[in-house]
Each structure stands twice: as C-alpha cells, then as structure tokens.
C-alpha cells in the first residue's frame, strides 16, 4: 500500500471502507482536486456495495442502459418488474452483487454475477462469474467511475 494512503472505517461494515488521503500529503488543494473530478466538498461521491434498497435504482439504470444501446423496442412492457424480481432472487441466493457510486442518489453501478448454465453446468467446477451492468448516469460520465 502506498504510504500516503490510509484506510479508515466509516461504518462497522467492511463494505463501507474508504480510502483517505491525509491533508498534508496533497500536492494541490483538496478543492481543486475535487473540482477537477466535477465534485464539491459539499457533495462528494461515495463508492459502496449496493443493498437490496438500491435495487429499484439499479433496475432503472439497467433499463436506461438498454435504451441508450437502442434496445428500447425489444423490452417487455413489464421489464422493470421482471428485472427487479430476478435481481431480488439473485441477491437472496448470493449470486449477484453491485457496487454503486452515490451522491444523493446512485449515479454509477457495476455488477458481479455468478452463473452455472450450459455448457459450464456439465463441468466439475460449474460456476463462473462475470461483470455486467456497468453504467454511469450521463451527468457523471468522464469521471473515472466505471
């Protein structure tokens, strides 16, 4: 670990660990560093593991991602509910986890999923993982959140 970075606990949960740069180690004022990223001291972004309470926003962002990719016309009329039910089930089974960047609301996300389907389900080690649902709200792009 770099000597100028320290790990502080913001909460009891390990999913809410936060890297902090001590003020005396900054080469430029904190205000300019945050302004370069489009943030302010009043409203910095926090990156954390998502909870089931975040799932409605995650689903909304997933559907925005489909629309931006030009797949809006292919979505089921009840796509929002279908995805929410599936994600709730995956979270209960421990087969999905998202990480989110938040200001007042979730503005970026990335998901990790575990699956065991054809053809891998026939292998001795049948589970594989992949990253998906990588999406950043338009207003927060180009800030190295993805």
Q: List low-confidence stretches.
A: 1-41
Query: Fraction of residues in helices?
Result: 10-25%
- CATH homologous superfamily of the largest domain, by name? Gcn5-related N-acetyltransferase (GNAT)
Name the shape in a single word: globular
The largest β sheet comes out as: 4 strands, antiparallel
Q: Quickly give the CATH architecture of the largest domain.
A: 3-Layer(aba) Sandwich
Number of helices: 3
The domain count comes to 2
From N to C, what is the helix and strand string? EEHEHHEEE
Average pLDDT score: 78
What percentage of the residues does DSSP assign to strands (E)?
25-35%
Spatial strand arrangement across the major sheet:
3-4-5-6
Radius of gyration using CA atoms only: 18 Å
Judged by helices, strands and strand pairing, the structural class is: alpha+beta
Q: Under CATH, the topology of the largest domain is which?
A: Aminopeptidase
CATH class of the largest domain: Alpha Beta
> Whole-Å distance between the termini?
22 Å
Task: Describe the 3D structure.
With 146 residues, this protein is an alpha+beta fold. It has 2 domains: 1-39, no CATH class; 45-140, Aminopeptidase. The protein contains 3 helices and 6 strands; from the N terminus they run E-E-H-E-H-H-E-E-E. The chain has helices at residues 30-36, 55-68, 79-93, and strands spanning 6-9, 17-20, 46-49, 96-102, 106-115, 128-136. The strands form 2 sheets. It has a 4-stranded antiparallel beta sheet with strand order 3-4-5-6, with helices on one face. A two-stranded antiparallel sheet has the order 1-2. Helix 2 (55-68) packs across helix 3 (79-93). The longest helix has 15 residues, at 79-93. The model is unreliable at 1-41 (pLDDT under 50).
